[in-house]
Amino acid sequence: MPNAQQPLSPHSAVLVPEHVVVRSFPGETIMLNLQTGVYHGLNPTAGRMLETLERHAVIGDAAAVVAEQYGREEPSVLADLLTLCSALLERGLLAVQVAP
Asked: Could you tell me which residue, 42 or 4, shows the higher pLDDT?
């Protein structure tokens, strides 16, 4: 069961819950929580970060991939990714995977 109270770290694994719909468009990615009706628009960079998180659930792993793709320093990308994940977690659009 996901735990929204767990602090995020580079070792945290996250996922988009089943009750959240994600749709990508040319200039924006939309996330909609079907349980609450809350939606959030992501700019193209944040949308790319989310796509990478869906393939590499561990935040630190996703940060390394995004940093390489955009030619940026990994610590900076990691900070941005942790901020994005925290915001999505607060809105119920992302969940932390809890180890069994």
From this structure: 42
